[in-house]
Design goal:
This protein is mainly α. It has one domain. The chain is built from 4 helices and 2 strands; from the N terminus they run E-E-H-H-H-H. It binds zinc ion (ZN).
Length: 98
């Protein structure tokens, strides 16, 4: 087993069969689970900020990002956190998390 050094703490590798980025089992074409603690701490170690849903879906195609932003909007995620995810250039990251 290999430990992954991530700054001031060590993240153990996720169990086999799950997404190596968020440690949750999901279709690779779908967003990572932003609420996964593994994903949050891994992201923090790399970016020194917490991930947003835009970050979690930044690897998805435009159609998938639009489906997810519609669903997240219905659940009350603030518009300013979703706008960047919908466009063709929606791979940018946002600076804040609410
Ligand atoms: Zn994932």
């Amino acid at each position: 087993m290999t430990d992954i050094p991530r700054g001031g703490f060590v993240l153990m590798p996720p169990r086999p069969g799950v997404c190596p980025v968020c440690a949750v089992k999901h279709d690779p074409a779908q967003p990572h689970n932003r609420d996964s603690l593994y994903y949050q701490y891994r992201f923090w170690a790399e970016h020194r900020r917490w991930p947003t849903w835009v970050d979690a879906m930044s690897h998805c195609d435009v159609k998938t990002r639009r489906l997810w932003t519609d669903a997240l909007r219905e659940r009350g995620v603030p518009e300013k956190l979703l706008a960047e995810a919908e466009g063709e250039d929606g791979r940018r990251e946002v600076d804040q998390r609410e």
